[in-house]
Amino acid sequence: MEQLILTTASPEETAELAEKLGALLQAGDVLTLEGDLGAGKTTFTKGLAKGLGVKRVVNSPTFTIIKEYKGRVPFYHMDVYRLENSDEDLGFEEYFEGEGVTVVEWAQFIADRLPEELLNIDIRRTGDETRELKFTPAGDRFIKVCRELEK
Ligand code: ADP
Ligand code: MG
């Protein structure tokens, strides 16, 4: 599978899809999340966190680059926007290879520090209430995850 494209017709549907994905994830999984402002990245991330068993409210980590939440496994939410043109390394490998699941927003700014195996999710607005979610898996593990998600 090269790509999985799914559509949703409401924010709730996007959150439910993300929750389903969250339930399929395990320690060491890394997801990159793309989409314009208002596409639904935060909506998606909140659903994902729910699927990981996070009870706390998840918001965008605009002022902190990395936010950590307790769940079934730890959940790390990163927004590396402020690392554009910076080679600062905040110990990314320890997060990526660690005990938790990581979601990275603006991952292109740390492209050279990302693991080889990851799942990219691109959310595109197709109407007021409709979104297209394109899942691009890199590595066998995420191909399997996408097959499960498609069911
Ligand atoms: P981002 O984090 O990408 O800027 P948000 O998740 O904060 O986006 O905002 C998405 C907005 O779009 C919310 O106001 C949400 O209610 C709305 N929306 C409408 N339809 C959908 C949908 N199908 N999926 C996700 N969000 C949707
Ligand atoms: Mg957001």
Question: Could you please describe the fold and organization of this structure?
Answer:
- By secondary structure, the protein is of the alpha/beta class.
- The chain contains four helices and seven strands, in the order βαβαββαβββα.
- Strand 6 and strand 7 form a beta hairpin.
- Helix 1 packs across helix 4.
- The protein starts with a strand and ends with a helix.
- The protein binds adenosine-5'-diphosphate and magnesium ion (MG).
- This is tRNA threonylcarbamoyladenosine biosynthesis protein TsaE.
- Keywords: ATP-binding, Cytoplasm, Magnesium, Metal-binding, Nucleotide-binding, tRNA processing.
